[in-house]
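Hey all, sorry for the wall of text incoming. These are the three entities for the joint prediction.
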Amino acid sequence: MSINTKIIGRSVPRIDGRDKVTGAAKYTGDIKFPNMLFGKILTSPHAHARIISIDTSAAEALPGVKAVITHKDVPDIKYGISPARWDENIFCIDKVRFVGDKVAAVACTDEETCYKALKLIKVEYEVLPAVLDFRKAMDAGMPQVHDEYPKNINVEIHQEFGDIEKAFKEAHLVRTDAFLGNRAYQSPIEPHSATSLWDGDKLTVYSSTQSPHYFQYYIAREFGMDMGNVRVVKPYVGGGFGGKMEPTGLEFAGAVLAKLTGRPVRMFFDRHEMFAHNRGRHAQYMEITTGVTKDGKILGAHSNFMMDGGAYTSLGIATAYYAGALLPLTYEFDHYKFDLFRLYTNLPACGAQRGHGAPQPKYAFESHLDNVATELGIDPMDIRILNARRPETVTPNDFAIHSCELTQCLTRARIISNWDAKKKEGGMPKGHGIGVSTGSFVSGAGYPIYRTDLPHSAVVIKVNEDGTSATLYTGAPDIGQGSDTVLCQMAAEAMGFHYEKMKIIAADTETCPMDLGAYASRLTLMTGAACKSAGEEIKKSLLEMASSMLHLPPDDLECEDAIIYSKSRDGKALTFQEVARKHFVLKGPLIGKGSYNPPKLGGKFKGSPVGTSPAYSFGVQVGEVKIDEETGEIEAVGFWDVHDCGTVVNPRLLHGQVHGALSMGMGESVWEEVLFDDEGRIKNPDLANYRILTALDMPPVESEIVESYEDIAPWGVKEIGEGSTNPTMGCFSNAIYDAMGVRVYSLPLSYEKVWRALKEKREREHGGKE
Amino acid sequence: MYLPDFDYHSPESLDEALSLLAGLGSGAKVLAGGTDLLHKMKQGDLAPEALVSLKGLDELKGINYVEGRGVVIGALSTQNDILYSEVLAKKYPSVSHAAKKMASNQIRHLGTVGGNIVNAVPSADLPPILIALGATITLASTSGKREMALEDFFVEPASSVIEEGEILTEVAIPDGGFTGSSYHKFGLRRSGALAVVGVAVSARVENGVIQEARIVCASSAPKVIRAPKAEEFITGKTSAPDTLAELQAIVESEVRPRDSIRGSAEYRRNLAGVLAKRALIDAVESGHGIHAED
Amino acid sequence: MNTIQDKEGVKRYMLSLTVNGDPHTVVVKANTTLSQVLRNELALTGTKQGCELGDCGSCTVLMDGKPVNSCMVLALEAEGREVTTIEGVAEGAKLSDLQESFVNHGAVQCGYCSPGMVLSAKALLARNPHPSELEVREAISGNLCRCTGYVHIVEAILAVSEGRTTPPEEANAGGEA
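and here's what came out:
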């Protein structure tokens, strides 16, 4: 379906572009208040230890130190994503559970004094044996990370849909493969910081956050305050990718330090502390079994996973459910079983990272599917086309799929990557290989991040008094993905106004209506829907006003490009500006309001809400790699991404999301891994040895969109921000296999692992054991 | 992150710098580009009482060809000075190429050749190619100057023979008989990566036969090392595939890497052999020129 | 260099440098980095701090025209030098071509790497007005970006080298429908 839009579909420049290229854009750490102090958190040097005593006296005596706090100075209310798993305190009380666990905090006159003061806090620990390998966490005799959770099981999931045994019995081939994931870290370039200040009973926190509303909720809850007395403001944010979704401790500690000192306090992480706090991608052990027919049709699948949760729940319950729940999205089969244990270890907690829960299982499933295809002698592209999900279908775990152009994506990717020619003998230079993989992701979560009946998104648009501009007020946080721009486009479209005349006030809990935040790729669809309602309300008011000015019925009038005109009579027209001004004079402020609540979604089984969404994006990636046989070095030669993301609001921003998601997926595929030593300390907490891609590592990328329209969404839109991370790891795995005939069963698919696999293959062949 | 306090001195001549250093004693460190020194200080690995900045010492800058001495590189030449040097582009593009493989553009504008040598890090990129070309260095102190082969400068583990009060002033690449040279670095991404292994090779080739060769390996032992058995093996031979395979195996047997976060000892051993082979091919086939990839 | 000593015996040094054409004199401890002087003393917070170890490039400024990581430069080493920060790139209210091109090409997402990225690109084009794509990638390879995959950044820089600040498909239409 094609739609007639004026602003949606145009690559308008970002609304914040000018601020960001001139250095005018203020991020949390750039904002300075008079009399401001600086604060830091003292963290545990041990993976697991009992706190015997804490002596802060030497730190307090250091000139420039204004306050030192420990668990005694803060509420002892535990927090986390779900009430059943609230397991984290602002500061550790009895014991520390990972290297980096929070113990105390200081507020000082400058940054340097903070570091010096931390060194003067004397904490006596009794070191305890630690759980460092999640695959052994359930074993008998392992230490307990939390006494309340026996066998270190944070959550276990056992779901079965259909009859998996029957499916396997009927299958021509039943194959099992096992894979191991890596701990990755979001690594936004802007480090976390939070500045707290009090005005009487009211607390204001400026924070580098993906969800001002969720922070407001948690800060109010921790301190027993009314939400109305907590204001959270998001200045410009330098990337989040899931790592700025929940309060880090900087907000809690800063609030207390600001209260105690009566001064604004800026708390901040340095790069090392970011890594230590972590909440990155869970490393998972993934066993996948599928039963297929002779032709390659998947009959059923079983995912059997274990996941390294780290020391706390964080957002990990959602991650755990997502890991299995999203797997049946791209391929149609009726029988599905999903078992998972998320385990506590004495490592930093894991949380949500771009593609939340889905990318590693996708790596496993897509690698496995290629193994199946190889065994059956089927082309990897063909087996995917054969199984590809179709529109208006329902997954075995009760997710209703409406628009879905996966087959078209596969077909198109096949053409633009020149797949068939490359797959022929001699179709690529020696050492090259090509792989394909699919992905899908939610366009917003069907249920809120915490239990509430509040709408998921709400906005207000105010047309300014003389009608020359309009301001969109939204709680939605732009963390770099471009929501401020896209939402203004949508608001202007609905009003019949100009994008260039839109202003935006966003992500401030006091001046903006609430929004659940930038996660689960939700803003374009959900906040977009709220913008559409608000814009249409304004248009309706304007047309009514114009109706009385032109003496024509409102339904004969339309507003486009800021001109209100009669549909039936030529020459009868007024400007948006004059009608809006008249409205203000005669009827008061011209305001539009909108809010969004998803429809009731999903099944009735335990965990059924996770993975539900009004709409799902679908995508395909093809990657070509070149392997250096002697060193295992992997060069990404080219990538092709073809996406079904519904109607495109801003093509340039959209492709930018694809490029970014792909580059993050690439990093995790080959280059990135948080490494720990045998005492649970991170060995590479810096950007030299945690290798996110540089401009020289990034291959040419072709990003393409297929025609698609989502009926349930405003203007037919769907998500893009996270979906393109999902296929990438599987794509690399399959391309490497195609190039070299070796499969690497653990992430990252590092040069050394590829080299080793090749060496072992040579040895097998020479040893004649193949 | 912060730098511990120190006193700062910025002398205006080498003599002034040397007497300052002599007076300050063991608590003082020399500050050139600062990219290694400040890094260590921020990480808490070093807390000197004083820094003597060399920024005012113009006499330690410049890359020139001096008749009878060869290419003389002032110790304060930055890595980008080396990369963009016309003298080196003409005489030893291989040295510029090694500089190009270092860190990032911004760091290369700061980091100096002197710093890269004096820090004595086994993964440093400039020493292997300089040693392969038979470079000498000059160390100055209040008691005079001494010159030595760069190769003799490093001692295990990761330290050098530099003495308190000494400043490295220049590096000289003598007009040697080498007809070709090359440095191959293996990093885990294409920029901002330390060498997992780096190997430099120089060779004197006559009629396709290698008369003399130096094979110098970085990140392959606690200091930059030569592979003497491999050098001896290749002397008098051509770069035929079978010979190279044997050379690769000999280099593998001579290096002594350890397991690190960038690679296992076994992997790095393999890399040293592969890179030595590739660098030798370049040195034989492309003179001091730059690899095909560039 | 003029110094004064506080009561703990720590010296303060008087530092003079030129930033974006303006002369400045500040009093700093020896351990102060150039990035700290720019951000804290001169309130030029466009110079970002991402890693403080010279790995990310967010703090890139031009010192005598050359891009350096200002977190790895002692402030005192900038004595007498000309420093250009992102605040000094636009010509008054008018964006420079590079800035304009970054905005129009969608080369900016979160924006945290953008100041350093623009300055690295500015230095490149000053030295080499018509770089190849590889040369562009090399020049910005010390500026880490976690958002864009560098695709639009490279396009934006190459466009300026070709005398454009707008993507070809949008140059006439002012946006594709």
